[in-house]
């Protein structure tokens, strides 16, 4: 926080610096607690949650569409789409996620910007997501050669759901998402719902932004470094799976968030933020 105050002091005039520092320190504390809480929640969920569709625990339960280059559509520079999941399996996944939310078991928010959604690692769906990531990896290497490790490829991921709810009875909903970039080398976005109004996914494009229409089961693939966001939802409900695919071979050279050589701390029980900590770094 001292460095923050030093760097941004000219921008903080006439603002409550103490309140800003408290907010920053609370967010630092939250982020440090993410991985221990993830391990604890995962164990509680494993012991207490009854899956609506137990087959989802098997990595081979989904019928992933074969992925050939001719199936990939360029939506705009650096953004691609292709068929990935049949609509009935998207419906099954959606029902499972909603069923879990109704269980009221402890779970963390998906990220610092979205309040609603779940971390799929807490739900124990690692094997399923790992299969999706490895299915996508060859085409991602071709489309983003500088963002996928030459030797290990994508060696970790963060997978979660996001929800945007424009229904009148929604409680504390997420309505939109400000422009941002992801803590990922490459991001995969899988739409699970349709029939909503607004909530367009938009990307930085030339001197402005361009929005995309989404289709259930048709995945969107883009660089995590590309600025993007979500327009306000006007009506209905939108639910997506987001997978931040990470390559330690790439991010160990430069952190995608601060653009500097990372200073790392070891975490237990998870892959952390996708970096590799070597023994001489401890």
Fill in the keyword field for this structure.
single chain; 282 residues; alpha+beta; 4-stranded antiparallel beta sheet; 5 helices; disordered C terminus
Walk me through what this model shows.
The chain is an alpha+beta fold and 282 residues long. The protein contains five helices and twelve strands. The protein has a six-stranded antiparallel sheet. Strands 4-10-7-8 form a four-stranded antiparallel sheet, with no helix packed on it. Strand 7 and strand 8 form a beta hairpin. It is globular. The C terminus is likely disordered.
What's the gist of this structure?
The chain has 5 helices and 12 strands. It is an alpha+beta fold. The longest helix is centred in the N-terminal third of the chain and has 32 residues, at 17-48.
Unreliable residue runs: 278-282
The main β sheet shows up as:
6 strands, antiparallel
What form results from the Cα inertia axes? globular
Q: How many runs of DSSP E, i.e. beta strands?
A: 12
Counting H and I runs of at least 4 residues, what is the number of helices?
A: 5
Structural class: alpha+beta
| Helix and strand pattern | HHEEHHEEEEEEEEEEH
């Amino acid at each position: 926080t001292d460095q923050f105050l030093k760097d941004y002091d000219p921008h903080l005039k006439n603002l409550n610096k103490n309140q800003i520092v408290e907010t920053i320190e609370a967010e630092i504390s939250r982020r440090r607690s993410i991985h221990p809480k993830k391990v604890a929640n995962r164990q509680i969920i494993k012991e207490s949650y009854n899956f609506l569709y137990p087959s989802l625990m098997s990595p081979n339960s989904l019928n992933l569409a074969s992925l050939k280059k001719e199936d990939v559509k360029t939506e705009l520079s650096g953004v691609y789409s292709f068929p990935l999941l049949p609509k009935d399996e998207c419906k099954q996944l959606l029902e499972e996620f909603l069923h879990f939310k109704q269980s009221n078991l402890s779970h963390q928010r998906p990220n610092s910007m979205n309040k609603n959604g779940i971390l799929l690692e807490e739900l124990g769906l690692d094997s399923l997501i790992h299969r999706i990531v490895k299915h996508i990896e060859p085409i991602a290497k071709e489309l983003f050669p500088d963002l996928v490790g030459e030797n290990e490829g994508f060696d970790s991921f963060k997978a979660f759901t996001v929800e945007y709810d424009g229904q009148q009875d929604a409680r504390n909903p997420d309505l939109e998402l400000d422009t941002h970039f992801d803590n990922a080398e490459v991001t995969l976005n899988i739409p699970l719902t349709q029939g909503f109004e607004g909530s367009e996914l938009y990307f930085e494009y030339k001197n402005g932004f361009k929005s995309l229409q989404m289709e259930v089961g048709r995945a969107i693939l883009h660089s995590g470094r590309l600025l993007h966001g979500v327009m306000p939802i006007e009506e209905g409900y939108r639910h997506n799976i987001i997978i931040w695919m990470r390559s330690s071979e790439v991010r160990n050279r430069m952190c995608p968030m601060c653009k500097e050589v990372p200073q790392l701390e070891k975490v237990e029980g998870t892959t952390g933020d996708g970096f590799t900590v070597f023994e001489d770094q401890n």
